[in-house]
Design a protein that fits this description.
Number of helices: 15
Length: 363
Amino acid sequence: MTEKKSITLTQYILTIHGVQMGQDVLTLPSDVAAVAGTDGWISVIIGSIITMIVSLCIVSIMAKYPGETFLQVLTRYFGKWVGKACMLIWGLYSLMSVIVLLYFTVVVLRISIMVQTPSYVLVFLFIIPMYMVIRSGAQIVGRYAVFVFFFTLWMPLLLLISLGDAHSVFLLPMIKEGIGPILYAAKNTVLVFFGFEMAFILYPYLKNKQMAARGIVIANSLSLILYLLITLACFSYFSPDEITQYIWTTLRLVKPIEFPFLERFEIIFLSFFLFLFSTSIIPYAFSVTKSVEQIFNKKDWQLPIYILLLGLFFSSLFHKLNYKELETLRTWWGWVGITVAYAFPVVLFLYITAHQYLNRQRA
């Protein structure tokens, strides 16, 4: 990879972290509370540990052939056609991620702020910056993630304001329902760490590949810290019965914050949240275009970008997705993600390890 197209370790870390800090920032506390009660924060830690293990499997796979793309690694072990079929599945998963994340953002905006604004207008406004970032390559995707991280760094600190009215007694006693609900809720918490699988696409661009494992651990750790802060803040502010009544708990947490010149501060908060949403959507969109490029063996191909963004816009013209349909789509995306982002890397890692072991035995 040329110097112009390469990304730094910081860009690698914050791009992966940015993908993970998306829609679940708003919904995680109520989702885990509905299953594990106020012990849900333990489920977040368990989900993070699982993610760490799978993340290291991905880095280990790519590190065996540092100069090759994801498709080249797949082709090496499965042949041309099976490798391209796997890459196609990866591209479709990335496309599904873009659709779910983009529509979720649009629905949240329409319900919270822009009730009268048509969905296609919001989608159009989103695809303009998406195009500007994606067309410029991995380096600009990384730089954008770094910018958004520091631009929104103040937002988690706002959650500390609510702790003045918090009640730590809401967190007690620990493990009151047993370990079963905590483990069951971990199924939901692994979903919030989607984004680590972007290492398959970003690794070839990483300038210092020896630091890839450390970088992905740091990225996952940053996400864990923020999700724990959000979850514990919500659990200690809302009562165990109250927290399950809100869908977007985090947004509700900042609603009481007021200034003499501003009443509905959550509107400002949500406006900045759009930057966080964008860092989830853009890398997945970049993954879609790179998947198509690799399948057709093209370099710096702009056509997939146009097709993707125009497809998103025209689909918003003809289909009005409501929140109930979106929740169904998110459920399906979760199961597909568990298969593609979690199960597949582990199976691939075990297959490659066994393949290399057998080859050494024969030699």
